[in-house]
C-alpha cells in the first residue's frame, strides 16, 4: 500500500493542519472543502504556520517552499478529487450523517487500494465505515490540535479494518512525525474519553465556585505536570465540540460521568466557544 497522494476533506483547523503535516512528510497533499473560500483560507493558514516556523528557525525557507509546492486545492467535485487519492482523511464537523454521506462517495469513487480515514474524535468509526461499502479499508486517524505541533496520532481500528490497512496507516502517521497509538473502536476511544472526564469535572468546579478557571488549570499544570490545564484545553478544542462529544458519550456510555454541566451548555448557547470565538473560559 504505497501512499503518494493524500486528500484531506474539510479545510478547517484540523483539516488544513493534517494537509500541512502530510505535505511536510513528502506526500502530495490536496485540500477539499465544499466552500472554495474555505480551501483558500486553509492554504493561507498553512503558509502562515510555515512562516512562523521560518521566523523561529525551526523551518528553513527552502523547506517551506518545498512543502508549499506539494500542497494545493483539490478539484471542487469530491468524486473527482477522490479518484487520485491513496489516502483520504475526512475532517468535517462531528455529524455522523455528513460523514456517512462522504464515505459513500469515497467508497464509490476512490481507488480500490485507497485507505479511507476519519478524523472523528468520538463517533463510531464502524458506522462511518459501513457507509463506504468497503469497511476493511476504513479506520480512524484522530489528530490533535494544533496538528503541526501535537505529536500524538490515535489510530482507531474497527473489527473490519484489515491489518494491512492498519500497518500502512501507522507507517504514514509515523512518516508525518507522529507517535501512533492503536485503539479499538469504542465510544470516545482512549483520548476523548479520558480527556473529557477531566474537562467536565473542571467545568463543574468553576460552576460550583471551587476555584477560578486559571487556578484550576495552574493546579493541573504545576501539580500534575499537564502541559495545558483542562479549561484552557477546552477553549482550544472548542466548547461546542466538547459539548457534542459529551452528549454523545452520555448517550452511549454513562449519563452520570459524561452529562454536560449547565455552565458548558450556557456558554455554548451564548456563542462563547473558546479561542475560535474570542471568548470561553478565557478571553483570547
Summarize the structure.
The chain is an alpha/beta fold and 284 residues long. Helix content is 50%, strand content 13%.
Could you describe the 3D structure shown?
With 284 residues, this protein is of the alpha/beta class. It has two domains: 5-184, NAD(P)-binding Rossmann-like Domain (Rossmann fold), CATH 3.40.50.720; 191-276, N-(1-d-carboxylethyl)-l-norvaline Dehydrogenase, domain 2. The protein contains 13 helices and eight strands. Strands 3-2-1-4-5-6-7-8 form an eight-stranded mixed β-sheet, with helices on both faces. Strand 4 (87-90), helix 5 and strand 5 form a beta-alpha-beta unit. The longest helix is centred in the N-terminal third of the chain and has 20 residues, at 36-55. It is globular, with a radius of gyration of 19 Å.
Number of helices, where a helix is a run of at least 4 consecutive DSSP H or I residues: 13
Approximate helicity band: 40-55%
| Strand line-up of the largest beta sheet | 3-2-1-4-5-6-7-8
**Domains counted in the coordinates: how many?**
2
How confident overall, as mean pLDDT?
96
CATH class bucket of the largest domain: Alpha Beta
Q: What structural category do the secondary elements indicate?
A: alpha/beta
Oligomer kind: single chain
